[in-house]
Amino acid sequence: MATLHERLAENIPGLRKELQGIIKQHGARKLSEVTVEQACAGLRSVHSLLCDTSEVDPNRGLLVRGTPISELTNRLPEEIFYFLLTGDIPDADALKSLQNDLRKRADVPDRVWTVVNAVAEEAHPMRMTSIATLSLGTESVFRRRYDEGMKKEEYWEAALEDALTLLARLPQIAAAIYRRRYKLGRRIPSDPKLDWAADYAQMLGVPDPKGEFARLMRLYMTLHCDHEGGNASAFTSHVVSSTLSDPYYAVSAGFNALAGPLHGLANQECLEFVLGIHKKFKGAPTEDEYRDYCWDVLNSGRVIPGYGHAVLRVTDPRFTAFHQFGKLVCPNDEVFRIVDMGYKVIPEVLKKQGKAKNTWPNVDAGSGALLYHFGVTQATYYTVFFAVSRALGLLAQLVLDRAMLIPLTRPKSFPTAWLKTFINQSDV
To answer: Is 47 a catalytic residue?
Structure first.
């Protein structure tokens, strides 16, 4: 099979021609209408973005290039990145080529470590990760070649160069931030003999005699790889990239969006909920105790984190994958048992309450408990795991945007006065 660069070079001319033909022949057709509520509430469900890497089906969950994520859980993140970009799972030779390319790019410049070490030790790990990502951009190939006058048709190649370099270096940076932020000792060097996720796992310094934590990291990186183009981090990255800012700017911006409590911090909140139950009952509760606890939470006006989803109307297949992993690796762990019991109790409670459109768990409901089991108890770091994984999707979408010559993203806004006039005129 062709290398990643070769396969993209083969695919892109046909993809461009197809898109240009669609625009020319069907450009005036309407995709969707925007209601006043949608315009005033985050543009939810408005069909307005092109994204070929993945989609979320309400009844099937995340589909990566049309394939259910549940069918990709045994794949390495490197394979997933190739798949996101091309729609093909790489064969052994193509995978080896990509892995070797990443290893050649993996050395982090000393100046980046200087930046990381200059950030206040008490800063949130996501702030550190965003700053470090941005600092890598001083050697952006995209920026250099753009300044030299590269053609639009070549944008994707320069973007791919930056994407591969950033992807190669992120695990080292993220692991070093973990060890510095929580005072765990010096940086652990990268091991070029390991795959991308396993190397990240060993650089964190988590004891892993059976290789189970490395398996969790491979699974985690795959499950969080992408989630359409309209989620906050992907859309933010897309908008910044559309200005022809280099990939380091765009991905750092995407990480900043991911850091919000309505996005990437959700897994942290889910673990805190589970640990609150563990503390109250000094271990795993009975099902009746769990049920009463949930009703107390809901009756106090709070929500149960990790349940419900903006799009899904079934159990998130990513939760199922984490749940199955936990059943195999740590079925008797008390924190995991609380997650397991919640899967039985919480949907029943939410159905009786009658407010939730989706009463089933999403991916965040179980991932934190697994990290906690392996000794990664610092919940403030969990979003960094999410960021390293989501970089796969952010970068794949970015490269394809440049390949498809997607222009500047510039929606039209309007003042409230215009909206009121529009409504009044429509009511006449």
So the answer is: no
